[in-house]
Amino acid sequence: MSDLDLDDLTHLLRSVQSGGDDARGLLYERVYRELKAIAGSQLVGERPGHTLQTTALVNEAYLRLMPGDEHWQNRAHFFGSAARAMRRILVDHARRHQSLKRGGEAERVTIGDLAIATDEPDLDLLALDQALDALAEDEPRLAEVVNLRYFGGLSLAETAKLLGISLATVKRDWTFARAWLLERMS
Questions:
Q1: Residue 29 domain-assigned?
Q2: pLDDT for 10-31, tens place per residue?
Q3: Is 127 within a domain?
Q4: Which of 86, 176, 97 is nearest to 139 (CA)?
Q5: Cα 51 to the chain's mean position, in Å?
Q6: What is the domain extent for residue 15?
Q7: What confidence tens digit (pLDDT) does each residue in 112-140 have?
Q8: What is the SS3 string spanning 53-111?
Q9: Domain contains 1
Q10: Angle, CA of 63, 74 and 141, to the nearest 5°
Q11: Is residue 49 situated within a structural domain?
């Protein structure tokens, strides 16, 4: 996530907010590679035969970000919003897949970074979504760390920088949030 200069992106985001059509196109060009990397990391753990492609996930997420209702304060806010949009898309896709199976088992995804010590490496994306929503009610920062790390594909250092907190705090939050989510989901 180092390709974009923080001030440059913040300026572009403000230009988009003020209605600059040229700014939207330029923003898309500038963030596309990073969004594609985030999307790729999300789709790596999906079930074999998953029908959602990386490019489609990026495009859908970007379209959800562009109605203009949201006023991004900075890069962290934008990429956090992008990660949440991708999460919603993946969850919606899993729900559609599950409904097509008429009550069959929920779509399974491997969440390598989320697994602590468990015999069950595959977690249910819908259960994760519900647990993450519950965590956000009590501990919004912890939920944001998970959102940026898992759905945003950011490293611990990138997460710390984007949230404006120390690396040690992110490590602590990440460890606690993973344990809390696994407990909640089991």
A1: yes
A2: 788 878 777 766 777 888 888 8
A3: yes
A4: 176
A5: 19
A6: 6-185
A7: 545 443 344 445 778 888 899 999 999 99
A8: CHHHHHHHHHHHHCCCCCCCCCHHHHHHHHHHHHHHHHHHHHHHHHHHCCCCCCCEEEC
A9: no
A10: 95
A11: yes
